[in-house]
Records
---
Amino acid sequence: MGTLAIDRSRTATTRNGVQLEFRAVTPEDEPLLEEFFDKVSDEDRRFRFLSAVGHVGHYLLEPMVTVDHFRTEGFLAFDRETGILAGFGMLACDKTMDSAEVAISVRSDYRGRGVGWAMLDLLADEADRRGAREVIAIEDRENHAAIELEREKGFTPRAMDGDPRLVVLAKSFR
């Protein structure tokens, strides 16, 4: 398995002017992510994990930080001005590398500032770069903000087989 980790110098400016610097997650980032998820709203944590989650500890964090940097990757988005971890995104490709699932969390005080948009662009670009034909996001139907963002980015909604409370949003590359 090769490594396709992100170039550590990748940056983006959000539509609201926040300058972000992205880097791949490492196991040493677990305490940083633990603190980050404490600054994500209760509702956003519920949407991210598709169940009520209070404090996000080692049990949930370990698979996020011990990734293979090929089929799975975690990306940290730092505010370049303050150094604050503003967002975190995961990319998980299936075994055949045909489809990639994305999941994004944004710190509460950075919501509405374009961080989610920038993270979704990064994750979709990385899925495409890895050769995925499709990128998907699985959302709670009540997560209107994420669904709208993904629709604006060219994702098409479809029902989630077997779970009427969820919706799959998909974007094809080829």
---
Amino acid sequence: MRRHILTGAPGAGKTTITDHLAAAGRTVIAEAATDLIRTAQAAGDPTPWKHPGFCEATAALQRDRQHAADRLPGPDQYFDRSPVCTLALARFLGHPVGPVLTAELDRAATLYAPTVLFVDLLDTITTTPVRRISLTEAREFAQLHADAYTEYGFQIARIPAASAADRTALALRLTRP
């Protein structure tokens, strides 16, 4: 089984691409941090990412989803982010890297395909209750992602700004065996 990572800055279009991949019958594993943020916001916490334990909780959910994905069918899986993204988030937020995230980072190179699909930013970013980041901050965050993936030995395959259909087609071409 091949596990492919889609990464990039918030608002780049990763989730749109994974939605298209799922519609095309591919196995997709949703982004953990976004789900944690939505759950916390629904419970009354408007900014859960500010808590020092947020990255550990994200890494734990990513681990649990990766284990659950082992039972899913298909030769390819597409992950909307990975623990390396969580490392970039911890660095961006100034949060500690705890034992769960450390353990997941140690496993990352053996779990995921060596080439990461890096979704480039579009020219604008839409702020949402979950995504509260400026375009300038998103660019900085994108660089932190690229640096973290390079540090952990991954190759980066860029998916440039284009239509969602074209980006999805490129993701499929890049992950062909």
